Queue: 3 jobs
Job 1
Amino acid sequence: MKFKPPKCLPTLTISSLDEAEIVNKILQSVDIPYLEITLRSTVSMEAIEYISDQANINLGIGTVLNTNQLINLPIPKIKFVVSPGFNEDVAIFCKENDIEYIPGIETSTEIIKALNHGFDILKFFPAEFAGGVQKLKALSSIFPNVSFMCTGGINLENYKKYIELPNVCSVGGSFVLPKKLIKAEYVSEAINHLNLL
């Protein structure tokens, strides 16, 4: 599978099965086939299992720092893994399990290292604090074949500046699908919010 995320990628920490069911309902209604669930302390393994069983969603796991975090997950159903930096063990694990790996970068040295390991879709993090749009413009001429998935400091006020860049394949953050909208009574509002992005 080649990673082809939507321009605005829902990136969430899902804390319960109820939340997972609501997120699934929202995403199916707007036809967004990708979701990144971040591995934070409050994440629900039950929620990950549920989302991984949804036929129309390509499930990704984010904030992956090492392979130990992946051991108890439904590996055959995970489509991509995202790290804030490059981890060779995670890269090997993903290759062995046919999972797309998107390592995080901040500098040109890190980009070169990722390219040398065969990765050309990279997470630019923390985007706003690492040079933002101007840095991405500068990197485009040096690394014309690299696409960036950007997170960190991106919000409703600045996200369009990122997705307009030819070397940005996606942006993510809490603004894409705010936690406050992941409630049964706000499903319609969440759908409208995503349709406006």
Job 2
Amino acid sequence: MATEIQTADVRALLEAERTELTEQLVELGYSDGGAGLNYDSNFADSSQVTAERGEAEALANTLKETLVEVEHALEKLGGADFGKCEKCSKEIPAARLEAMPASRFCIECAAAAR
């Protein structure tokens, strides 16, 4: 559980992941102001550009969702709820937290949700 692994190590992993996600969003041209992806207005509106735009938006949405999970984990990190499954309240094993520090659910509850 969280007491078995160092909180500072988990915080460092989460902060590194947050930085990486933010950098990936910037590389995609995502505007943090909530306007979404920025595109060159001189781009021809061909089907290829539309398809690429759709792929970039799907990737940006996935990155934003992951970023929300990381932010949520960072908020919980200092409290007693970190390292507990949000569904069954059981302790999340240390190995899972080390592999996925933003985990909200234990393996059983995560598997049941699929």
Job 3
Amino acid sequence: MSTNTDAVIDEKIDIDVSIPKLWRVVVINDDFTPMELVIDILKAVFKHDEDSAKKKTLEVHNHGAAVVGEYVFEIAEQRALEATKIARINGSPLKLTLEEQRG
């Protein structure tokens, strides 16, 4: 009795790997949120250093909005939600939006 256990596979598997799109997290200016709170949120949630957080906060104040980070969608959404939660806990109406980065 002869058993042949050698299997021959003549099939190729095509894997299409693409780089995920990035989403921008944008902070929108309002007349109620203290600049110190925005700076604290940028440092805590978006990992900005002190100087970068201050510059982005001034950009929000002077231009009405600023991109504070670019991430894959799930991370962008999570960070925007975390920042919004911190703002609400502190009585702030701070608004953050997500924008798909155009390639």
